[in-house]
Design brief:
binds zinc ion, three-stranded mixed β-sheet, 13% strand, 4 helices, alpha+beta, two-stranded antiparallel ribbon
Length: 156
């Protein structure tokens, strides 16, 4: 099951998703004039029990900007905006507790207050691809695997 902030949309096949996403912006990357070569899943497809091949979950990207999205250097709001996507689509794995919260591509939730900048690991906490991507961008140390305690407001 998938929850939508606005209207439901059809689940596409892998091929239909790829064709629709890559042709969306005249064949260009959402962030630069280079040709789109990757149909990027805005939220990782492993977060979706049905594969996540929804048009609102796809952005056309060149190789460089695809890497920036995988490593979360570019965030979800940035990629949705660049790709002209106004619908926020969340898999049921990120709801209902996380509905409306800010996530990264891998379903990790951004924390607030004294923990601003930190992320709480989501359903893909043990995923090697996620760990590899965040390590590559230097953001791995901002990922927490346990919710921070109220009195832990100083990091050693
Ligand atoms: Zn690009």
């Amino acid at each position: 099951m998938v929850l939508f902030q606005h209207r439901p949309e059809p689940l596409l096949t892998r091929d239909a998703f790829k064709i629709s996403v890559l042709s969306a912006l005249g064949g260009k990357c959402a962030f630069c004039p280079a040709a789109a070569v990757d149909a990027h899943h805005i939220l990782d497809r492993k977060l979706f029990e049905d594969g996540g091949y929804y048009r609102s979950n796809g952005a056309p990207l060149c190789t460089r900007h695809h890497w920036d999205c995988e490593t979360t250097v570019l965030g979800l709001a940035q990629v949705r905006s660049a790709a002209g996507i106004s619908q926020i689509l969340l898999p049921s794995s990120l709801s209902p507790a996380g509905f409306g919260a800010e996530f990264d591509k891998w379903g990790n939730r951004f924390l607030s207050g004294v923990w601003t900048g930190y992320r709480l690991a989501g359903p893909l906490a043990g995923d090697p691809g996620m760990i590899k991507a965040l390590t590559a961008s230097g953001l791995r140390s901002w990922l927490l695997f346990e919710p921070p305690q109220e009195n832990e407001n100083e990091m050693g």
